[in-house]
Amino acid sequence: MKKALVIVLVALMAFSAFASPVAEVKEEGPLKFSMYYSDNATLPFKESWLAVQEATKSVNAEIQWEIIPIADYSTKVSLALNTQTNAPDVILYQTTTGENASLALNGAIVPISDYSEWTPCWNAMVEKYGMEDDVELLKLQDGKRYYLPSLTDVPFYDGGLILREDFLKAEGFDAPKTFDDLYAILKAYKAKHPESYPLTVLAGPRVLYRMTMPSFGLSIGKNGSGGSRVLSWNYDEMKYFPAAISEEFKAYLAFFGKLYAEGLLDPEMAEPIDGSIWSRKMATGAAIATWAYYDQIGGVTAASTIEGFKLQMYPALAGPAGAHHQQKNRTGSGIMFPAATAKRADFEQIVRAVDKMFFSEENSKLWCIGVEGTTYTMDGDKIVYADNIKKAAEGIYKYMQLEYGCGSDVTQMVWVNAREMTKYDENYAQINKAVEAMGNVIQYIPPTPKFDDMEAEEAAMLMTPLADKLEVWCNAFLTGKKSLDKDWNAYVAEMKGLQIEKYCDLYNTNL
Amino acid sequence: MRRKVDAAIGKTSFSKHFQRFWQLYVMLILPVAYFIIFKYLPMFGNVLAFRRFRPGMSLYGTEWVGFRYFKMFLGDTAFWQAFRNTITLSLLNLALTFPLPIIFAVLLNEVQHWAFKKIVQTVSYMPRFISTVVVIAIMGELFSPSSGLINNLRSTFGLGPIYFMNEPEYFRPLYIFSGAWQYTGWTAIIYLASISGINSELYEAAEIDGANRFQQVFSVTLPSILPTIMVMLILEVGRLLSLGFEKILLMYTPSNSAVSDIIDTLVYRVGLANQNYSYATAIGLFSGIIGVFLVAGANALSKRLTGDGIY
Amino acid sequence: MKVKDTSTSSKIMNVIIYTVMVLSLLACLLPFVYMLALSLSTPQAIIQRKVSFWPVGWDTQAYRQIFTYPNFFRAYGNTLFYTIFGTFIALVMTILFAYPLSKTCLRGHKALTKMVVISMYFAGGMIPNYLLVSALNLTGTRLAMLIPFAINQFNLIILVNFFKALPIEIEEAALIDGLGYFRILPRIILPLSTAAIATIGLYYAVFFWNDWFNGLIYLNTRQYPVMLFLRNIVNGTMVLGNSSSASTDTASLSISVKSAVIITSTLPIIILYPFLQKYFVKGLTVGSIKG
Fold first, then answer.
1. What is residue A257's predicted lDDT score, i.e. its pLDDT?
2. Which pLDDT tens digit goes with each residue over A56-98?
3. Taking the model in full, what pTM does it have?
4. Which residues in A lie closer than 8 A to residue C134 (C-beta atoms)?
5. Which CATH architecture does the domain made up of A31-153+330-415 adopt?
6. How far from A502 is each of A41, A218, A325, B68, CA to CA, in Å?
7. Could you tell me if residue B21 is inside a domain?
8. Which domain holds residue B142?
9. C interface mutation test: which of B9, B34, B48 has the most C CBs within 10 A?
10. Strand A159-164 relative to strand A289-293: parallel, antiparallel, unpaired?
11. Rounded to an integer, what distance in angstroms lies between the CA atom of residue C32 and that of residue C26?
12. pLDDT tens readout for residues C227-244
């Protein structure tokens, strides 16, 4: 009896071994894969979102969404890519900077540029907006690109200097064009309200620095563009310079140090303020000026009880280096595939599906404005949003994010300025037009050097003490604890002692 | 409690020993196996401190680099400042907050109104449940230079505002005070449990000897929970180098960085944020070794002074 | 119970004690009351600083927002599962370890104790632990939250200490009666140690209840505990790194939602404790020497 059983078992096994290839070829049904999504508590992911449903349907896929809180996203991605266990098939919202560059070069990520026949939709979008040069910059040392970036035709001005327009009008001020204009406005407010600190900043000094420093010819600090923390890009000479010890930085500190000394700059902005505290300062008139994002204005206005309260956003102010805003690139965070995904038999199908899901003409519209007939209708060439959207208290943009999943920077991969403007009010569109007319307000982000592992480690080891020193001294100069006249040279000497010049050379030789 | 019987008989052979205690050894099988698998196996990961780590390649490093990373941090002045900050803050913290739960537990035990006692005890450990993020946020509000309660009070007396959360001199007091507030009631639970196990006959005997309540505390309560106190103390001493990293990170500002940077935050910034896991592991190993020495020292001292220790 | 002592020194002591206790009570209670008030107030009132210890403009919107957060209730169920089973497993393992370890006459007891203590200082770090758990095929399963954390050395040592403090006569009496350790432990030792076990049980329960980091690295979305979601809400702004997009700068929910999160996540554990209190009874109970 036992022997018979064994024979039957073996026969069955043999049968299934032969039978399965036939069965596989015929396999139909939805494509199944898993995807990491970076979740933000202000916009929690809903699988029922219209955009998600339609996009998934359009590629006949069944996606297992792994929803990860934004604060822990990089940890989880790092874990998945480093250990190659329990990794998803697709990861959203990533670039190849920092550790990802090393991971890519060491084979943990799929070099998607090798598979460009499988990403026709993305290729078409790149061509449509003339972004071949921009995506070339994303290639690493080995000449390959490891992710499908999001694409923007024209970077837009979504945040900047925000002022109380009612105060300006009441005092007869014109819209400020330079930093000195701003100074006059702040002084006038302080004279009227001595206990106030007219200029405050949402989310701490990093927003202030990255939005205002470019007008002084530099961009350093934790969110300085380029990620070097102490170096900046010279747009004329096309190379890095040690901005942290430059005259431009000294001028910057002089201006803002003056604001601080005269009680015009909020002392609490030394560290990130909670959003609600910032709201409160603006709403109650404890501050009248800030650098923040346009879609914050509505919430603050609603909370204010001051009569005639009106906030307005202004184009970038002109400093010694011209009028510039935070640098932005036309490419943004995008989609990458862990190496394990390439081992799947249906890898090609997954790549094609992901490509179509986010970059096809119809889907790129879907992720932005939704479904025709449901969220909008076309009036000739104009987009007309549905009534419930137009009337929403949060504004069209926010409402579409919350209700339909449209306009999230995790899933929307194609950003067309003109189309985006339709979601904001006239005011916003006008401001953006004004900014565009000024020309070269938003410069490109400097290129990342192509380091190998050893150089990357060396750069990182040099960077941390320099960045720490910068933070301490910047704060000291700003708050007046150290004097620019007397202590600047000591500061420069310390930074040189920490090898800032060697660090700069390291960057420049590896471009 | 020591079994003096064995000492009297003399060393027995192992098989006899086993016969007597085999049940205890059987009990140990599961936990010890667990320990080896889940606590000791991962320790091999520490080998990374001596090898270079490349993201995407072997997680145990790709080549031996000896003491490279140790030399790196041992020669770094920022490390030694962080080290000094860690020790100073820890010792201060220990000295000030260690006695508090004991005092609290003893006092609470003396409360005779049963309902009140229960209420206080239950409420006392609530602060522990407020996440550190919130505690720091509340402190930020309370001590804010522009809108905080404390500075508002100062202004009514004509004093200028102090930005407490930014000034280096206030960092340590604020850190210690918030820690005490959060954990006193919680840690007191252990001491209360210990006190509840004290034989009431001991109190009666003391009373008969003429001790009043105050004296009873010193003659009965405290000595009875001394073993617990010593164990807690030894454990705390061993943890001298591992302060609450999250809290420091939240309280850290460039202005107070000279006193607020500790080993863990340094490791975070230099090691983890730069994905230099080897560096981070090397420092962790270094701290671990020091911790072991501290515990051994504290244990030996405790044994000498009170006859009792952890081992 | 102690005889009531009404001497002057006792009265002074009473005054001191009660003052300290009332102050402690207020210090501990007020922040919670404040947060409860915040969680039920309108955002406008909060911005205008009208809220102190009573809600202004009764508004349950914060709680509604939390409850409609996708998967919130499933996550709560997950947390309950991890807490209950995790604590149970942990207690069993810890007791089984602590009891033999408390017998100083046992051969190997010193070595084992040293082994425990040393392991407190040399942990492997996140990645080796992760590798181990995935090698055991536990990642993506709920067991990953229970098994790797079954014994906490700190709690273990506390329990060992309690066992050591128990009067040895009771055990000796039982041994003479012919009971083996297998029976002494549950029948005699455990009933005497309810205070200690309740204590470390509470400590374990709180650990499992609050654990989000292990949930993050080992679990998939469906298995997330509720703390992971709530952390997202409270820590929205704590993105440490080079973020430079609007979504991370403005990622902070109103204070009312954050406060509601605190209340929702801590209330159950706080309510648990009073029920544990009855286990902190004083003195010996059954089968003492006198009997």
1. 94
2. 999 999 999 999 988 788 889 998 998 888 899 999 999 988 8
3. 0.84
4. 83, 85-86
5. 3-Layer(aba) Sandwich (3.40)
6. 42, 19, 29, 21
7. no
8. 68-306
9. B34
10. antiparallel
11. 10
12. 887 777 766 544 433 344
Q: What is the percent of chain B with per-residue pLDDT over 90, rounded to a whole number? A: 21
Chains in contact with C, where contact requires at least 3 CB pairs less than 8 Å apart: A, B
Are the Cβ atoms of B28 and C103 closer than 8 angstroms? no
CB C79 within 8 A of CB C223: no
Confidence of residue C81 (pLDDT cuts 50, 70, 90): very high
Q: Where in chain C is the domain with CATH 1.10.3720.10?
A: 64-279
The CATH number corresponding to A156-327+418-511 among 3.30.300.130, 3.40.190.10, 1.10.287.3510, 3.40.920.10 equals 3.40.190.10
Contact across the interface for B147 and A475, Cβ inside 8 Å: no
Helix axes C72-101, C153-165, angle to 10 degrees: 40
Rounded Cα distance, C147 and C140, in Å: 13
- Interface membership of C49 toward A (CB under 8 Å): yes
Chain B residues whose beta carbon lies within 8 Å of the beta carbon of residue A453? 54
- Taking the C-alpha atoms of residue C73 and residue C66, their distance in angstroms, rounded to an integer, is 10
- How far apart CA A214 and CA A325 sit, in angstroms, is 6
CA A91-A92-A96 angle, to 5 degrees, is 80
Task: Decide if A45 contacts A418 (C-beta within 8 A).
Answer: no
Q: Looking at chain A, which residues constitute the CATH 3.40.190.10 domain(s)?
A: 31-153+330-415, 156-327+418-511
pLDDT given for residue A15 in this prediction? 45
Residue with tokens 């935070």, as numbered in its chain: A326
CB atoms B227 and C165 under 8 Å: yes
A231-250: per-residue pLDDT in tens?
Answer: 999 999 999 999 999 999 99
CATH code where residue B182 lies: 1.10.3720.10
| Fold held by C64-279 | MetI-like fold (1.10.3720)
Is the ipTM of this structure higher than 0.85? no
Which of C230, C252, C257 to mutate to test binding with chain A, by most A CBs within 10 Å of its CB?
A: C252
- C252 contacts in chain A (CB < 8 Å): 42, 274-276
How confident is the model over B306-310, as a mean pLDDT? 80
Is A270 close to B270, i.e. CB distance below 8 A? no
- Give yes or no for C245 touching A (CB within 8 A): yes
CB < 8 Å to C117, chain B: 238, 292, 295, 310-311
Residues contacting B44, CB < 8 A, separation 6+: B60, C124, C128
Mean pLDDT (whole number) for A456-477: 89
Give me the residue from B76, B254, B269 closest to A475, CB to CB. B254
Q: Tell me which of B12, B14, B27 to substitute to probe the interface with C (most C C-beta atoms closer than 10 Å).
A: B27
